[in-house]
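pasting for ref
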Amino acid sequence: MGFDIFFFLFLYLILVGLLVSNEKKILKIILLCLGPVLVQSLRSPTCGTDVWGNGYGYYQKFTLIGEIPLSAIFTTKINSFEQGYVVFNKLISFISDNPQIFLAITSLFIFSLIGYIYYRFSVNAYLSIIIFVCFGLYIFSFTGLRQAIAFSITFFSFKFIVERKFKHFLVSVFLAFSIHSSAIIYVFVWPLWNIRHTNKFAISLLGITFLLLPFYGAIFSFVVPILFKGKYLTYMNGGRAINLIILYLFIYLLPLFIKSNDFSVKNAVYKKNLELQIENFVRWMAYCSFLFQSLGLIGGDSITRIAFYFSIFLPLYIPIIFKRAKFKSLIYVCITISFIAFFYYDKSKEFYNIVPYVLFWELI
């Protein structure tokens, strides 16, 4: 293409943020999600390394799965795909056998779950969507379809954590696990709801984390075969994840320097306020983002995908930090500019073969 599709995407998101009133919250989140969904839906299958996969990727596998008899859908193995993902493909094939429709429905499914959580729990839905699009997760979802579906499901299960519906939470996590086995890591976040994450606790936790750094290699060697199977051990070559580690750490620690938040209110106030408890859990997710991203120091960049289940909360966390700040509009403008700049600085678009962006009809 002769133009930058992402420039127009950002322009669209900014205009929706400016022109659609926050009072029309449902309309606003639908419009904010519509832009990213359309960009993914109209792309060529060559936009996304694993989608085309040298002629045998997700795009072609959808057609193959569609031909499997319904009676065999729970038993037929397709490469290393988890069975839940095979069933997901089969269900879409009932709607259409066109792989391009498959890509569109997959994107719509992912953004429906993510958009719902941002709609319900975000301090500023516009800012959350902008951060999500710019922060690598959106670009990754062009290529890592299975894990993108999985982390959208675990993210949706946040609703059940807030509502304290443990059975619903478990069903959601195991559904995500059936799509991508790494999602099982998320089952361990349930108890975090009951643990306060004050500023003092954050400093102590950070100290313990750094003390454990020498043991990351042993932890990694034990955990990765369980979550990702043995092939990912080949990535234990020392990653290049240091930039994101520093960025996640900076974001996690921001409340220590910006006092316009409620992370350290008295327990009596905290226990009676659901909003504060939600913010406390989101802060835990910000810490887990940093923790699992730091595995990249010894595990290689591919293993930092574990962090996706937690970094998807950062678009919730960042607006929370500034929710009581003065000059909020100016801060939001600065955050928008900073994250768009990060999007263009980040090289994952090239790594995952998202750019140059090509519309699907340009290959016909």
